[in-house]
């Protein structure tokens, strides 16, 4: 699988720190980027085209480069900030007759070239997702900040965001970290107890609060059979702590 990227202009504001600013970036990944797009084998072409198509534009991107990380196989980009992102994600061609879920088989192995950002921030993102036999779903991210974003652990890092606010199908969602309160001075580990070894490693542990309000019920029961399909109209609120 490949990708096409075009950049209108680039500015180097802080080259001593490895920073570069890119303006008006166009990104595209479609069926023509399959690994064997020139092959005559339909079966191999279908299997290698089993990925989401997308196209988008980025008004401005500020990236910090690191040669050491690139040599380590983590990608040359250390951290990045995106502003003014628009695009479309197309998953209408993807098959959904998947076999039984096997967690061990689904665990992604690291591949050279996968992105691994130590710091990621994005502002003013908007776009739509095209699902098979369903209406387009608009989505937007007003602001999101993450301490790390890795392609291998993408969903985990998204849930570990410092904060993220946006909309999905015009319904407001938010993700934020809930920190445990700081220990009081009286609970200092000067006098260890039997419970100290098990509690100290989790002193900085954080949980994530996920909120999603007023989501249309059709996003849950479209194309389904059984009692859930009996619901023809309604709204869903999601409040979860992970």
Automatic annotation (TrEMBL):
Residues 180-199 are annotated as: Disordered. This is Mitochondrial distribution and morphology protein 31. InterPro entries: Mdm31/Mdm32. Involved in the organization of the mitochondrial membranes and the global structure of the mitochondria. Also required for mitochondrial distribution and mobility as well as for the maintenance of mitochondrial DNA nucleoids structures. The keyword Membrane applies. Its main location: mitochondrion. Belongs to the MDM31/MDM32 family. One of its GO terms (cellular component) is mitochondrial inner membrane. It comes from the Eukaryota. Keywords: Membrane, Mitochondrion, Mitochondrion inner membrane, Transit peptide, Transmembrane, Transmembrane helix. One of its GO terms (biological process) is mitochondrion organization. It is found in: Mitochondrion inner membrane. Residues 185-199 have a biased composition (Low complexity). It comes from Zancudomyces culisetae (Gut fungus).
């Amino acid at each position: 699988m490949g990708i096409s990227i075009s950049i209108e202009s680039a500015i180097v504001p802080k080259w001593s720190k490895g920073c570069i600013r890119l303006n008006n970036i166009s990104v595209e990944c479609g069926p023509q980027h399959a690994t064997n797009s020139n092959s005559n084998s339909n079966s191999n072409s279908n299997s290698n085209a089993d990925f989401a198509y997308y196209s988008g534009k980025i008004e401005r991107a500020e990236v910090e480069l690191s040669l050491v990380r690139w040599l380590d196989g983590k990608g040359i980009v250390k951290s990045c900030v995106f502003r003014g992102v628009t695009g479309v994600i197309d998953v209408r061609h993807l098959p959904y007759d998947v076999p039984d879920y096997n967690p061990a088989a689904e665990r992604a192995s690291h591949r050279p070239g996968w992105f691994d950002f130590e710091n990621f921030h994005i502002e003013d993102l908007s776009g739509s997702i095209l699902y098979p036999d369903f209406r387009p779903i608009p989505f937007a991210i007003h602001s999101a900040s993450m301490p790390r974003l890795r392609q291998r652990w993408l969903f985990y890092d998204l849930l570990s965001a410092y904060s993220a606010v946006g909309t999905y199908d015009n319904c407001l969602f938010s993700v934020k970290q809930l920190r445990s309160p700081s220990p009081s001075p009286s609970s200092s580990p000067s006098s260890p107890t039997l419970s100290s070894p098990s509690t100290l490693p989790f002193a900085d542990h954080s949980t994530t609060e996920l909120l999603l309000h007023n989501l249309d019920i059709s996003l849950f029961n479209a194309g389904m059979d059984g009692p859930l399909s009996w619901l023809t109209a309604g709204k869903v609120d999601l409040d979860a702590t992970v």
